[in-house]
Fold this protein.
Amino acid sequence: MRVRELLLRNLSAKLLSLFFALILWGVVIGEKKAQIQLNLPLELVNIPPRAVVVSDVPPTISVVVQGPRTLLRSLPGRGLRKSIDLRDMGFGWTTIRILPDSISLPRGIEIIRVSPASLDLKLDPLMEVRLPVIPQLVGEPPKGYRVVDVQVDPPRVLLKGGESELSALTEVRTQSVALNQVTTDLEERVGLELEGLHLMEISPLSVWVRVRVAPVQVQRTLKGIPVQGIGSEQQVRLSPHAVQVTLKGPQEVMKGLSKMDVKATVDLKGLAEGTHQVPVRIQAPEGVRVLEATPPVIQVTVRPSRPG
């Protein structure tokens, strides 16, 4: 008796709700069907431990579906996706078919086409290697400059990926470092050239490349540099009175160097009357190094002072 009362309570309201539900369902069922294309995210799940996929996997699959417009409009917001379970997949190549009935959709929606309809996947044993990093330098410094030293920090990187890809690698190259306009030391953080590899880990993702650049050093010899005595007002005779000087310095500086830019002197301070062997001192422009003076020592004869 109690059950009957429950069923009959608010009977009119219940019948009215049922009536509208049937009308709505009839509208949906009777609605003209349409087609839309969905791009569903593709994910690989349950990859076996110590294994890695080393084939290209599209981020999405294209699915053409058909159904009532009302239902189709609600699909993009449902977070639909396609998962492929690799739990039982062995090493090597496997072709996996993507069947329409493997994609879960609301009732009333029919899948017309799936693209791609299959995937070729390759599973590799996981491998770990530490490889030296080789800097990829592009171009050369401007004329008059040269690369003196190149360093990479850190010098090695850790890679984790498929055995078939990593076993053949002996080094990792950096992305390009341009030197065309470089006239001073360069420090640049750059990424690594790892295109085409299916890696699970890269450590670090980038490295520092430090390039030391210096002016090109050239050697030049100037003849006939006059020698001057300094430090005394005594009457002296210098033999020889001029020397030959060999210098080394930046190419641009050396190109414009003349005898007027170099000074050769001997110190006369404290020299008594007579003949002395005195070393020649050479003064060159800043950044220019004196390699040799010929002769390195000259004869200085101090004459007797004339009576006043």
